[in-house]
C-alpha cells in the first residue's frame, strides 16, 4: 500500500510542476499537461535540493538518485507514464491518393511524348542544358551551410502505458498533480475582497462615497471626451478633404485610436499631407536634382581621371627624355636617387624643376667664372689705388 505523500515530496513535486517545461495535448478526450523525463531530471539537479546544507547531505547527487525519487513520486500518483502513438491516415485515403497520382503521371507522360515528338533536336539540347544547370543548383543548395526546408510535424496522441516506471530518457509523463499557483491565488483573493467591498458600498462613510461618485463621474467624462474627439477628428478631416478637393489630408491627433501607449496616443498634435499637382512637381524636381548631382559627380570623376592620365603621360615623357640621353647620365646609384627625388618633387606639386646633370655642371662652371671675374676686378682696383 502506498501512503500519503510527505511535505518534502509535495514541495519537490510542486517545484517540478512549475519549473519543468511542459506541453499540453489531448488524452482520451481530456486536456492534459505532459513533460519529458530527461528534462525533469535536469530541473531537479539544478534545484536547491541538489545543494548540500550545513550538517545535511544533498537530496539529489546523481541522475540515478533523481530517478529513484521520481519513481517514489510516480507511485504516489503525482504523474503517470504515457505512450506516444502516431496518427496514421486511413488506408482508403492513401489508396485513392496513389491511384490519382498514377493517373495524373500517365496523362503527363502522354502529353510530354506528344510534345517531344513534334520538337526539334535543338530544343532537346536546350532542355538537357537546363536540367544540368538545375542539378548543379540543387547540389549547391545541398551544402551543409544552406538552410533546409521545414519538416512537417507528425501528429500523435497519448495513451496510458502498461509499465508504470520512471526512466531517464525521452519518455513522456502526464501530470496528475495540479496545485494552485501563488499568483492565481493572490489574484482571486483580491477579486473576492473587491466584490465584497462593492456590495458593502452603502455602509461606507459619507466622504468615501462622495469621493467614489466624483471619481466615477470624472472617468465617464474622460471616456466620453475621447469618443467625441475621435468623431470630431473624422468630421474635420472630411470637411477639409471636401473643401480642398482631396488635396489636403489633415488629421488632428492621428494616433488617438492607434495601438500605442496613453501618452503616445496624443503625439503628434496633428499631421498634414498635400497630395496635389504641386507635390508631383516637387517630386519631379527632387528626382531631377538628384540626377544632376549624380551627373556632376560622374563628370568630376571623369575630369579627375583625365588629370591623372595627363600626369602619367608627362611622367612617361620625362622618363623617355631621360632614357634618350643615356650617354649624358651616369648609371651610378647616387645619380638615380637624385633623379627619383626630382621626379617625386615634381609629382607632388612643389615649385622645383627637372635639372639634368649636364645643366647642373654648366651652372657650377658659370658660378666659378663669375667668382674669378670678381676677384680680377678687385685686384685691378687695388693696383690702381696704389
From TrEMBL:
Keyword annotations of the record: Endoplasmic reticulum, Membrane, Protein transport, Translocation, Transmembrane, Transmembrane helix, Transport
UniProt KW Lyase keyword: no
Top-rank taxon, per record: Eukaryota
One BP annotation, GO: post-translational protein targeting to membrane, translocation
A single GO cellular-component term on record: endoplasmic reticulum membrane
Membrane spanning residue stretches: 185-206, 212-243
Chain positions covered by the region annotation Disordered: 89-155, 277-386
Membrane topology listed for this record: Multi-pass membrane protein
Principal location: endoplasmic reticulum
Location within or outside the cell: Endoplasmic reticulum membrane
Compositional bias (Basic and acidic residues): 89-143, 277-315, 325-343
Pfam families according to UniProt: Sec62
Composition skew (Acidic residues), residue ranges: 361-377
Keyword Magnesium belongs to the record: no
Residues spanning the signal sequence: none
Protein family according to the UniProt entry: Belongs to the SEC62 family.
Protein name (Swiss-Prot/TrEMBL): Translocation protein SEC62
Organism of derivation: Chauna torquata
Organismal lineage: Eukaryota, Metazoa, Chordata, Craniata, Vertebrata
Name of the encoding gene: Sec62
Amino acid at each position: 500500500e502506498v501512503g500519503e505523500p510527505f511535505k518534502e515530496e509535495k514541495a519537490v513535486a510542486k517545484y517540478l510542476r512549475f519549473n519543468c517545461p511542459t506541453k499540453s495535448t489531448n488524452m482520451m478526450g481530456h486536456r492534459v499537461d505532459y513533460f519529458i523525463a530527461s528534462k525533469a531530471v535536469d530541473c531537479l539537479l539544478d534545484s536547491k535540493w541538489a545543494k548540500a546544507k550545513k550538517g545535511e547531505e544533498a537530496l539529489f547527487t546523481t541522475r540515478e538518485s533523481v530517478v529513484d525519487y521520481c519513481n517514489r513520486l510516480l507511485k504516489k500518483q503525482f504523474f503517470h507514464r504515457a505512450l506516444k502513438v502516431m496518427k496514421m491516415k486511413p488506408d482508403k485515403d492513401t489508396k485513392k491518393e496513389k491511384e490519382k497520382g498514377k493517373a495524373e503521371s500517365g496523362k503527363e507522360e502522354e502529353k510530354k511524348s506528344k510534345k517531344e515528338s513534334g520538337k526539334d533536336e535543338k530544343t532537346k539540347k536546350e532542355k538537357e542544358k537546363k536540367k544540368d544547370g538545375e542539378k548543379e543548383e540543387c547540389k549547391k543548395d545541398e551544402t551543409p551551410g544552406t538552410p533546409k526546408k521545414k519538416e512537417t510535424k507528425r501528429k500523435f496522441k497519448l495513451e496510458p502505458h502498461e509499465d508504470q516506471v520512471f526512466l531517464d530518457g525521452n519518455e513522456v509523463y502526464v501530470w496528475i498533480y495540479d496545485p494552485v499557483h501563488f499568483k492565481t491565488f493572490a489574484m482571486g483573493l483580491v477579486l473576492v475582497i473587491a466584490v465584497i467591498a462593492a456590495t458593502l458600498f452603502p455602509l461606507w462613510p459619507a466622504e468615501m462615497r462622495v469621493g467614489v461618485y466624483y471619481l466615477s463621474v470624472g472617468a465617464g467624462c474622460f471616456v466620453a471626451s475621447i469618443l467625441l474627439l475621435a468623431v470630431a477628428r473624422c468630421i474635420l478631416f472630411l470637411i477639409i478633404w471636401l473643401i480642398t478637393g482631396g488635396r489636403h489630408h489633415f488629421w488632428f491627433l492621428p494616433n488617438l485610436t492607434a495601438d500605442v501607449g496613453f501618452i503616445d496616443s496624443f503625439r503628434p498634435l496633428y499631421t498634414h499631407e498635400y497630395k496635389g499637382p504641386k507635390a508631383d512637381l516637387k517630386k519631379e524636381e527632387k528626382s531631377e536634382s538628384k540626377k544632376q548631382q549624380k551627373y556632376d559627380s560622374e563628370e568630376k570623376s571623369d575630369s579627375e581621371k583625365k588629370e591623372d592620365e595627363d600626369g602619367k603621360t608627362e611622367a612617361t615623357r620625362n622618363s623617355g627624355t631621360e632614357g634618350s640621353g643615356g650617354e649624358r647620365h651616369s648609371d651610378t646609384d647616387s645619380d638615380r636617387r637624385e633623379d627619383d627625388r626630382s621626379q617625386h618633387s615634381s609629382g607632388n606639386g612643389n615649385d622645383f624643376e627637372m635639372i639634368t646633370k649636364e645643366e647642373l655642371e654648366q651652372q657650377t662652371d658659370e658660378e666659378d667664372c663669375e667668382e674669378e671675374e670678381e676677384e680680377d676686378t678687385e685686384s685691378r682696383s687695388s693696383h690702381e689705388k696704389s
